[in-house]
Amino acid sequence: MLATAQQKLQQYFGYDDFRDGQQQAIESVLAGHDTLIIMPTGGGKSICYQVPALALEGTTLVISPLISLMKDQVDMLQASGIAAAFLNSSQSYEEAQQVWQMARTGQLKLLYIAPERLENDTFCMELAALRVPLIAIDEAHCISQWGHDFRPSYRIIPRLCDLWQDKPTVVALTATATPHVREDISELLSISEDHTYVTGFQRENLAFTVLRGEHRERYILDYVSNNREEAGIIYAATRKAVESLAELLAKKGIRVGKYHGGLSDEERSTTQQQFLNDELSVMVATNAFGMGINKTNVRYVIHYQMPRNMESYYQEAGRAGRDGLPSACILLYASSDEQTQRFLIDQAQDRSRIPFELTKLQEMIDYCHTEDCLQQYITAYFGEHTPSCGQCNHCQDDRPMQDVTVDAQKVLSCVIRMGQKFGKVLTSQVLAGSRNKKVTEFGFDRLPTYGILKGMSAKDIAQFIEFCIAEKLIGVSNGQFPTIFVTEKGRDVLTGQQQVMKRSVPVVVKVVEDDPLFDHLRELRRDIATTEKVPPYVVFSDKTLREMSMKQPTTANAFLAINGVGENKLEKYGEVFMQAIVNWSK
Fold it and tell me: 288 in a domain, yes or no?
């Protein structure tokens, strides 16, 4: 059976060998064992049920939480010559009946459905009439109440197998499961530890960066401008921040889209499709965007604000580099993010989850302040111990340090002289020598610290105060209108017992080196995708195009040897891409 699986892998997906962990997991599934697979985003989880589905007789059911995820997966499978379809609310009655007819007559190898559909008895009776050898549960962490995306409808799944006399094999898959969540999934689905496969959470192609106290808008403008040809996602915590950032980038001529819950379904759907089709290079979004988006060529993910927990962060950051190519994950931290997330957590309908969410928030805050290897911190959170990654900004940061003790003392002195009862905005205005009405009303223009940093703008001073907060020199009170105060560590700086060092402004670099032939092949891919009305990465991934550019295949055998080229894609696209390579060589 494994030989059949290997042949299907090459024929349909264009890979000669399984990745680490895939073969063992697939062997378990094909042997009829209920199996739990935990692999990082981009680690190849889908292969672990798609290949068995091709090797087994009948239709594999895939339970998937999002319409966008279903469509993406089905597009990819159909492009590889695999009979797949989905049933969800986006379809008309006629379209759904057409899918049912294909399923009843055994024409489908994979059928994607939403978990909410299982609440409908009639729907379940229809499923019971199908020959189902395998049930794949995607995003399986949704079944656990300890997971960050708990979905009550997932709790119905364990009863699903009772529909068939011959019980289907169950395979559950997720990328973000802490040890606690893993135990919960195993218990609910009765999966033994012997048939649980964890390939590791480390993403070797991702370079993680946390920057504290930086000028966030300026950094994003520089970064996006320097990587105009690459696809990126910028996450923000609020709709207001999304709107503001999208407008800022659009004014600079960036092909940018926005995505948040305040937009209509049609607006969100259109913008998402434009991003998938490479018509937009950047998507600015809240966390409403991205789950199940299989766009493989996202080269960077920037978090403009800190997310509320590590699971969300790693899932969102992990949307970069799904094709295995080097990609960047950057978090721009400010102390105000904590207040924003505490406010959002406080809006939860289920009040019993608030203490749980606040604990997870603190673990996220700790990540933003750690001085250790960032990837090591992430993997430890998920219960895995790995060596330092050698490529995050903590492992590689060689920017020169600047002594900013005197400027820090000026800020700390001003905070104390203002009575430690005001926020960072008013404090920065006093330090900049502003004639703001509030400044004069309170008499702050008569303080010795008034205008003491007038060589800097009030905005730059506010950013420096953020740096002091991140370094724990200044504390922030909780409340609707947070005020700042000097900490014990800050008092040590004021009295000259401690020095304050700050790294110079980070240098923004290109995330990928220029390659003219790759760019040429990318344009060809875009034209084909437009004609076929599919996202470009459905034709070929960036990783496949990079390998084509490097090896420049001009024969069918050489083209088929490129990773990601199966027999179906050789037949569909081989001639046109090989001709483009020949013409380029000339």
Answer: yes
